Amino acid sequence: MAKLYFNYSSMNAGKTTVLLQSAHNYRERGMTPLLFTPRLDDRYKVGVIKSRIGLESPATIFEPDSDLFELTRQELDDHNVHCVLVDEAQFLTRKQVYQLTEVVDELAIPVLCFGLRTDFQGELFEGSKHLLAWADELRELKTICHTGRKANMVVRVDERGYALREGAQVEIGGNDRYVSVSRKEFKSVFFGGKRIKFIEPPANDGVADADPEKDLL
């Protein structure tokens, strides 16, 4: 039975790597996955999903007004689709999450979404909010805070390591740094004014040289 899955985590948990490995597994078995990636993710090339360890695959671009159900149905006119994989799923709209439920319920195609749960202010992204509400299965991909605790939040900091409390939810480029932290560390940094001391200098952390899981928020 087809299901809608939401695989979520903080940054650096390997979401994109898992997505691309899943796509490889389908292809290896002679099956066809359909990959989606948001247009705003242009850190490499538009229409390419790439992980920080070098794996990559072409993907169908979606924008806020794209109909993912129709795009999937159109693919079915040409060939069978055995699975839909969505990268950076936090950028989906409420309507698009609904469309993905239709892919599952009407077309009987499993959908695997991968994305962040919360932004740098600790608020849910629109896509993540509705995936958490409507997905059949939720899977957390885990990573570690520099304190040794599980990292389940992300904070945006300046070059000195102090939290930035304001700004656009989606920001690509610039010299700000995004760090995966535990809830306790998030509270200390975001609300308590604590500074994160970087192990390595955070210079030149713009998108051009960035970890693909790290700097798209």
Describe the 3D structure.
By secondary structure, the chain is an alpha/beta fold. The protein folds into 2 domains: 4-141, Rossmann fold; 144-209, no CATH class. It contains 5 helices and 12 strands. The chain has helices at residues 15-28, 68-78, 94-107, 126-134, 183-191; strands spanning 4-9, 33-38, 48-50, 56-58, 60-62, 83-86, 111-116, 137-140, 143-144, 150-151, 153-157, 177-181. The strands form 4 sheets. It has a 6-stranded parallel β-sheet, with helices on both faces. Strands 3-4 form a two-stranded antiparallel ribbon. Helix 3 links the parallel strand 6 (83-86) and strand 7. Helix 2 packs parallel to helix 3 (94-107) and helix 3 (94-107) runs parallel beside helix 4 (126-134). The radius of gyration is 17 Å and the shape is elongated.
**Gross geometry:** elongated
- What CATH architecture of the largest domain would you give? 3-Layer(aba) Sandwich
Report the CATH topology name of the largest domain: Rossmann fold
Largest sheet data: 6 strands, parallel
Query: Termini, distance in Å?
Result: 33 Å
Low-confidence blocks of residues = 201-217
